[in-house]
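Sequence in, structure out. Go.
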Amino acid sequence: MNSFSGNTTAYFLTFVFLCGAHFFSPVCCNWSNAATGNAATGNVTIGTAVDCNVVFKPDAMVSFAHFLMGVSKVMPVGSSFSPEVFAYFRGKRFESESDGMHIRILTRFMKAASEKCSDLHDFELKVYHTALGKKSVFEYYRNLIRVLNSNNLNQIDLNQSDQKEFRRSFLHLYRAFQTSLSGSGNAVGQMMKNIETTEEYAVFRENLNLVNSFLAPDRNITEIRVVPVFLHVGGSDVQALRAMGISGVFGLNLDQLQVIELPLIDGMPVVTLKGLSHLYAVTLHEICHYYYYRSSLCSKLVEIHAGNDRKLRHLLAEALATALGNGLYFTAMKNEDPQWYADPAINGLAHRIIPLIQSEMEKGNAIGEAFMKYIVESAAESADESAAARALEMSAKTP
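Output:
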C-alpha cells in the first residue's frame, strides 16, 4: 500500500476479515536467552526479547490527530477519515457549507505545512506525538501551532489572523469529530482495561518476542504505545462504504506509537470483539516496520540485496511485515482466511516466504543472508506473476 517515508506505512484490513476471526489456544515456542552469530553474513541465533511494556489504550487527541490528517488528505486517500467518508458518517448532520468550509481551511494549512517540511514522516510524528496524552483540545492546539511554526521543520509561519482562522476551524472540526466519530465507553474500550488477561493478548506477546528475535535481534524496544481509533459502522454501512471504494482501514507505524483503526459494528457485538484479533495482527505488522527500519542487521541485509531499488525495498518491507505480523498471528489463532494484505503481490509474497520464516525460527535463527537472498528472488517471481495476471485480466476485458 502507500508509503510515505522512513517507516511510516499504511496497511489495509478488509472489512470482511471481521467475520472470519477465530480464537484458539496460543502457539508457544521456547528460545535461548542470547542472540549470537555473524550479523552481517551468516545466521544469527535468536534469543528471548527483552520484556517490552505494551500499552493498548484509546487516546482522544491522537484519534483527533488521525482525523485531521484524514480529512485534510495528508493521509492517503484510502483513510477512513477522508472528507467523503466523514460526510457519510455525519449523515443528516453533515452541513456542507459549514463543515466543508472548515475542512477546506484545515486542508490548506495542513497541506502547506506538510509540503514545506522536507521529511513528511517527521511531520507526521510531530502531529501525532504532540497529541499523545494531551488533556484537552486546547492543549493539543497550542502544541500543534508550535509545531507548525517550528523553524527546525521549516514550517509555514502563521500570523495572528491565520492562527485565528485555523483555530476556529480546528475547534469546529473537533466538535464534529466528537459528535460523529469518537468512540468512548464502548464494549471494546471497556474490554481493553483487562486486555492482559485475554488469550489473544497472550498470543500477541508470544509473537512479539518471536518477531523481535527474528527481525531485529540487535534491537529491543522497551515500550510500545498502541492507540486504537474507533470507527462506528453498521452492517449496511459496510456495504455502502465498499460501494464508495472504501474497503479497509489503516494501521500506522509512528516509531514506538502505533495507530490502528478498529471498526465497531453496531448491533454485532460478538463480531466487534472478534475484531480485536485483527487489532493485534495489525499492531504486529506495524511494529515489524519499526524493526525493519531501525535494526542495523536488517538494514544492512536490505542494503546488500535490494540496493537503491525503492519498489523492491517497499515490497520487502510490506511482505516481511505481513508474514511476520499478520501471517504468524493468524496461523497461531487458526484463522484460515488467506487474505492477509489487500495488495495481491504483497499478500502472495508473504504466503510464499512464511514457511521459510517458520523453519528458520524452529532452528533458532534470525534473518540472514540466505533468507534475504530467497525473499528477493521470491519478490522478483511474485512481481512477474502479478504482471502476467494483470495482462491476462486486461486481455479478458478487451473485446
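Check: The two ends are 31 Å apart (CA to CA). The CA atoms of residues 56 and 226 lie 5 Å apart.
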